[in-house]
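tool_call: predict_structure(chain=1)
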Amino acid sequence: MTGLRFSYNNLIEEISAFKELSRNFTDAISHGVLDGLRSSLEQIEDYGAGSKHEWGIREEYPYRTILSAGEYERGNRGSHLVRAEVTSIWEVWAASAPRRRHPSPYLELVGKASTRVRLLDDEDCELAMWRMEVADSSSPGCYFHVQILGESADPPFPHTLSIPRFPGILVTPTSAIEFALDELFQERWARHVAGGSQPVNMWRPIQSDRIQKLLKWLAQMVGDCSGSPWPALKRLRPDPTLFL
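tool_result:
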């Protein structure tokens, strides 16, 4: 089976909407990060057909949120000043254009697809870290999963212990960033995205459509399986066109 496929237009619109949606929650030094994520995707679409690429938010230029002054607890009762720092890497194949001089219609995951979220205090000391990932063909875990730490030789969660892989439903770098913002700013982010602003109206249908497709697929697979649902579900892989 080939890898999961994504429409260029869908991803570009998602990034553009989220840039506007998250503007007031983005650290000033990161205001260009999402522009770079979008423009690199546009370059792959325009010039990269028929080849493999690494696409994402680079380690040397991460996306950083503003500081949360205890807002990760309701009533701002948290004891830490904390921000999120996000990087990502997707190994993708740009499908060949159907006709010459036309951009390729989609990109396809062909390897690593990981978005890393680090929680840092006001002195940039790491407090926590997790990765939201889409599995490759060799992974024994859920196709959409979350892993905690796992990049150091030291416990807890050393890199030699690749479990647990918690099931997840958030796929793209920007959806992973929204998850972090909603955790860091429990009340403020919820108010921010509850209205009918233009960025919300752009963002909502993209996320709603993708989550509904994923949940529908999961429900169907659980209903069709024999034996215990969880081991069966963990080993399933969606059709590459699930999100197209």
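agent: The chain has one domain: 5-234. Proceeding to next step.
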